[in-house]
Specification:
35% of the residues lie in helices and 35% in strands. It is α+β, with helices and mostly antiparallel strands. The longest helix is centred in the middle third of the chain and has 19 residues.
């Protein structure tokens, strides 16, 4: 199972937020160009948007430094979240009871791809 050659990945493990909340923000940046995605995350009101933005910037740095991709051609091809550990805490309640509080963590994965401009150039030739 070989991955596409022009993809770059960044994983942020143990993000202190539930996967449902993180996925709401990831839906908004899937398929967008990286500069638009970073702009949208900068103005998002959720606290977790800052961590997602750092992950996108890390993927951009990986693409630029490790693979020499052009930043202008990068877009978010995949953005998904998975479950991680769950801290379990307890709160005292009435009549000597206790209720559980779950504090979930998430693993955020951002995969960037580079759009090839070679297809557009080949259509412009006339004979």
């Amino acid at each position: 199972m070989s991955k596409n050659k022009n993809t770059v990945k960044a994983i942020n493990r143990n993000v202190r937020s539930s996967p449902r909340k993180v996925n709401l923000l990831l839906k908004h940046i899937r398929g967008k160009k990286v500069d638009v995605a970073i702009r949208d995350l900068s103005f998002a009101r959720q606290r977790i948007a800052f961590d997602i933005k750092k992950t996108v910037q890390s993927a951009i740095a990986n693409a630029e430094n490790n693979n020499q991709y052009d930043i202008d051609n990068l877009y978010v091809s995949e953005a998904y979240v998975g479950k991680s550990i769950v801290l379990k805490r307890f709160r005292p309640r009435a009549k000597g009871r206790a209720s559980a509080i779950r504090k979930p963590f998430s693993n955020v994965t951002i995969i960037l791809s580079e759009k090839n401009l070679k297809k557009e150039e080949s259509h412009g030739t006339k004979g």
